[in-house]
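ARCHIVE CARD
Drawer: 12
Card no.: 0347
Subject: one protein chain, sequence and derived structure
Cross-reference: see card 0346
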Amino acid sequence: MNIEHIKLIAEELDIKLSQVEATAKLLSEDATVPFIARYRKEATGSLDEVQIAAIRDRLAQLEELDKRREAILKSLSERELLTNELEKAVKNAQTMSELEDIYLPYKPKRRTRATIAREKGLESLALYLLEQDAGSAPEAEAEKYVNAELNVESTDDALAGARDIIAEIINEDSEIRKNIRELFSSEGTIASTVAKDKEESGAKFRDYFEWTENVAKAPSHRILAMFRGENEEVLKLAIRPDEGRGISELVSKYVKSGPAATQVALAAEDCYKRLLAPSMENEIRGELKKVADEEAIRVFADNLRELLMAPPLGRKAVLGLDPGFRTGCKVVCLDAQGKLLYDTVIYVTHSQKQKDEAGAVVCALCQKYGIEAVAIGNGTASRETEAFIRSLGLPKSISIMMVNESGASIYSASEVAREEFPDHDVTVRGSVSIARRLMDPLAELVKIDPKSIGVGQYQHDVDQSMLKKSLDDVVESCVNRVGVEVNTASKQLLTYVSGLGPVLAGNIVKHRDEKGPFKTRKDLLKVTRLGPKAFEQAAGFLRINDSKNPLDSSAVHPESYDIVNRMADDIGCKVNDLMSSAELRNKIKLDNYISDKVGLPTLVDIMDELARPGRDPRDKFEAFAFADGVNEIKDLAPGMKLPGIVTNVTNFGAFVDIGVHQDGLVHISELSDEFVNNPADVVKVQQKVQVTVLEIDEKRNRISLSMKTNPGAERAPMRESNRGERSESGKRQGSKPIAQPKKQEPSSGSNWFTKAMKKS
């Protein structure tokens, strides 16, 4: 454990040194973030998951910096270039950029113009000119270096070679590089222009055909949109500050007075234009992309968390419908545990005879299987199917609900689905997924690659390893926050439980299948390869509802069972009594149970669990229905007020499903009567909202919506960003918008990029 790293992180996160030190120690022992946050509050001072993850990620970043530092010191030492002063500078470098700047003059490099000039013996001339002392004219000094054998044919050749060497010397000046980097990050502008003959084919990027803004103020979604346009060869980008400002920075340090000053000034200008500016632009591009990626991933992660934590219907018998026109509706019946009981196909959009037959089938299935809810996928023909089901006059006790089916087709063709339903085709598997999503969104969505769920922006453009890590963190956090019933959970759900992973999750399922349900948490220790460490990490998040020990169905960790037993003994009752009686719990004096290992935070958590054992932190389920008679985009009209469900939240607004197969966009300027800087402060994914239709572009399938009391006030025209990505089957696959600029749009933070650069 590097104490300097600990000190730095404590300062950056504004938390105590002891908190970082304790967290780092637990992480080094392979403790997971959810476990540390939930069961090691005394050690960390009750740090939450976000803070613990930040410590973990910063430690990894600093370790990478140290690895690079050691590699550089080794390289310098092996080449006998390491001096005491250089070693000190390398060891004191605080960022990767600073470290690389120090190493640059000593870094093995390809053959450059300066290298060639040195081979011609012009280095001493370059150093003479760089001194700029009063003396002979540069031309007179250069005459000494004219040598046909070395291919220096004239004084102009000699001076040009010397300037190449001076340019490289300036380029490798770490102080100059630091200053120019700061200039690029604070005053640089990103300029976007359309490539030749791409105006028509690249129309979706037309708002960027001639666009310029400061890189430090440009929101991440605009940065990523421009980068995408460049990758698709529609746009050309340049990221530069004012050229004069950059050159003057070099001139002010290196150009003095004297006969040689002009030569040095020419070298400085050449250095900036040929070496330093392109190098800094590449570096800033990389950092800009990295920071924009991080922001886009943060938005995606926030949306995913809201989706995974959506209220579950719970254990009820469900009839699932995957709607369709030509191929009909795939129907499945599931029992309260999600087991597939029956599947068939009905046709609700063809002849009246087929509709009548379909209605009879649905009514019979509802009666036969005791159906308590109907789940309808929100893809093609969904509103027609919903209207048909509602027309059947099913008992009022049967809820009829639309379910977001994004990613269902991905699941149905996956290895997971084939393993679950080897004897059924993709249509049946997709319908099962739709029904199960209504019952428990979290348990079903963990089976799908998170980025296929469709609640992100630019998820295909950002760093994929960074995206996967962030989304996996979110899934792990949600799964462990809710808890998992070990006797019914799928392998995929168990995989995300703290301390398990795919191998142990598979072993648990195999043990369960061969030996029967787990009777107690202790039985988990009988699972192959599940040792004490994994048990410690996982046990508190696993539930056994039918266990003889009532604490096995709660989030009380087995390591704390003795404390609860003592509490019960001290007031002369059983644990069951303690869990069912608030009066008995009020008799407990927590101070009596504080020890060296257990403090008040853990005891408070225990008491909360005793009051509501195994409580589900998700909100209570509420039924939702779209407006009747509004099934397609052609049914819309400006001024309509409609119910909707938020499907995606981005930095520029929110996409809302209003039941017409195309999500509408509530731009950030239309989210609230108050000023909004961050849409996530106003709406969340899966939130039920009321919207007003502002504008419809039926030809381009675009809908502009408002949530303001006075919709459309000071509103910009409909923007290109209102696009929905579609899967090959034509069903809504979520939104992947091209975010467009708007002059008056609030920035995502005036110095967001500059601040991020300081950590790089």
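Annotation on reverse: The domain at 3-106 is CATH 1.10.10.650 (Arc Repressor Mutant, subunit A). The chain has a mean pLDDT of 90.
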